[in-house]
Design a protein that fits this description.
- The strands form three sheets. A six-stranded mixed sheet has the order 4-5-13-10-11-12, with helices on both faces.
- The protein has helices at about 15-20, 40-45, 50-65, 70-80, 110-130, 145-150, 170-180, 195-205, 225-240, 260-270, 285-295, 315-325, 330-335, 350-355, 365-380, 385-400, 420-425, 450-460, and strands at about 1-5, 15, 30, 90-95, 100, 135-140, 160-165, 185-190, 215-220, 250-255, 275-280, 360, 405-410, 445.
- The protein is α/β, with parallel strands linked by helices.
- The model has no long low-confidence stretch (mean pLDDT about 95).
- The protein binds pyridoxal-5'-phosphate.
- Pyridoxal-5'-phosphate binds near residues 143, 222, 309 and 386.
């Protein structure tokens, strides 16, 4: 399968190049030139498959020119072996038509494990045959860093460096990263804030020569197509668990960078009968404003009770706009040149094509708290703040909808225990096999907010 850039200047490339490059050289995002198309009969015939076998069927057409089915199966098996639930992504039905898809049984208790476990093993496999070494570099304020470290810690050909702001990450999230003791895992606490960490990472990417050409630097942020690919699988999986409703199904997705819900859109394009994708946002509601009122204007980031969705501009939205504008890359390039500084206004045509498949909803912090309390009272089930946002959207949409709705539960409630200060419910406990992180020794280096210091540290570690 070939991949093309949403900005139309970079040449098309293979899956492997799209994954190893991340962002296209022209600043665009890679999207598949065309998609596999599965019939309802084919999809229904997969209902007895394990999660792993289903994943292989769905992902194989994307990778077949570079990866054998057998290798893909090994990568997939390895990626989901550490999940704490044998179903990988179990489903619960709450009342008629409302389901929860639990995506938090991976090692770091959030859905990001689905993509980052897969990405780590995939990268390891790719560079193995190329005889290359990779340096994964990223900055985190929480979620992504720990999932990336978990995903790369057993990879032979990868060193991973994750920067976090010293003393400014919640204890659970920090310990999920720093209690991993592996030669190739390097946690760096920067004397500075998250933006400082991020600008060091950005500058390192624009100055790759500091690595002296021996290693390839790679980002594992949510624009990497391999992450999206891994996330397509659980849309099909949950459709099969609901019993293949022929008339269709609705998904509600707590949304930040638009990666997860974009995977749902690809599932739809690949033949899954998705009636609607609900884009559920917190008070950082640029996507809700855009879909609802054609108001895509950047605002300062709000600190909400659902921190993993506190985002000003959702980078993967560009991939949807590319389709909404009939893949007119010149137009997208022009639009994206000012996306973070000025409002963009969609044409009626583009907006209505988006509304055909998407509906949006915004939850305030108060509503998050109310939804968690109501769900606990009615069902004795604890939602995490991100999932609560998805659930609010589902409840609203269910008022006028006859299709089954699946709400994606993106994090385990124990990952964000601070919410109990607001709900006044009992603090959710970590799963037993994760409690060790609260007492194990932490490993990290504290560095100054200095480009040179960080780059020298990386060099020293990879050429040890
Ligand atoms: C990252 C994250 C999200 C947002 O997902 P996107 O793909 O960025 O839209 C939602 N919930 C949790 C818990 C997350 O970690």
């Amino acid at each position: 399968m070939r991949f093309i850039s949403t900005r139309g200047i970079s040449e098309s490339c293979t899956f492997e190049d799209a994954v190893l490059t991340g962002l296209a050289p022209d600043g665009g995002l890679y999207v598949p030139e065309e998609l596999p198309d599965f019939s309802i009969d084919t999809i229904s015939s997969w209902s007895e498959l394990s999660y792993e076998d289903l994943a292989v069927n769905i992902m194989y057409p994307f990778v077949e020119t570079e990866i054998s089915r057998k290798s893909l199966k090994e990568i997939v098996k390895k990626s989901y072996a550490g999940f704490r639930n044998s179903e990988i992504a179990p489903m619960l039905e709450f009342q008629n038509n409302s389901w929860i898809l639990e995506l938090f049984h991976g090692p770091t208790l959030a859905f990001k494990d689905f993509a980052l476990q897969f990405l780590g093993n995939l990268l390891d496999h790719m560079v193995e045959s190329r005889k290359e070494k990779l340096v994964v570099l990223g900055a985190t304020s929480g979620d992504t860093g720990s999932a990336a470290i978990e995903g790369c810690q057993d990879c032979q050909n990868i060193d991973i460096f994750i920067l976090h702001p010293h003393n400014r990450v919640s204890e659970v999230q920090r310990r999920q990263m720093t209690t991993i003791k592996k030669k190739n895992v390097h946690n760096i606490a920067i004397n500075g804030n998250f933006d400082d960490c991020q600008s060091i990472v950005k500058r390192a990417f624009s100055n790759q020569s500091f690595l002296k050409g021996e290693h390839r630097l790679i980002a594992v942020n949510s624009i990497n197509f391999a992450r999206i690919l891994a996330q397509i699988v659980y849309y099909f999986w949950s459709y099969l668990r609901v019993g293949c409703p022929k008339d269709g199904i609705v998904y509600s997705v707590p949304t930040g960078n638009f990666g997860d819900v974009f995977a749902g859109y690809l599932a739809l394009k690949m033949g899954l009968p998705v009636k609607k994708l609900l884009v559920a946002t917190n008070s950082n509601d640029i996507l809700h404003r855009c879909i609802n009122n054609n108001d895509h204007s950047p605002k300062k980031v709000d600190v909400s009770l659902a921190p993993s969705m506190d985002i000003m501009i959702s980078s993967n939205f560009e991939r949807l706009l590319f389709d909404a504008y009939a893949r007119d890359a010149n137009l997208i390039r022009d639009m994206m040149s000012r996306v973070s500084t000025a409002p963009i206004v969609l044409t009626n045509h583009a907006l209505s094509s988006i509304r055909e498949n998407f509906w949006s909803y915004r939850s305030s912090d108060d509503e998050i708290v109310e939804t968690i309390k109501a769900y606990f009272k009615d069902f004795n089930y604890m939602l995490d703040p991100h999932t609560a946002i998805g659930m609010s959207a589902s409840l609203e949409y269910l008022k006028s909808c006859d299709y089954p709705i699946v709400t994606l539960a993106t994090a385990h409630p124990s990952k964000f225990p601070e919410i109990s200060n607001h709900t006044l419910l009992e603090r959710p406990e970590l799963p037993t096999n994760l409690r060790f992180i609260l007492k194990n020794t932490e490993y990290f280096s504290i560095l100054n907010n200095s480009q040179l210091e960080v780059e020298n540290f990386i060099l020293q570690k990879i050429f040890h």
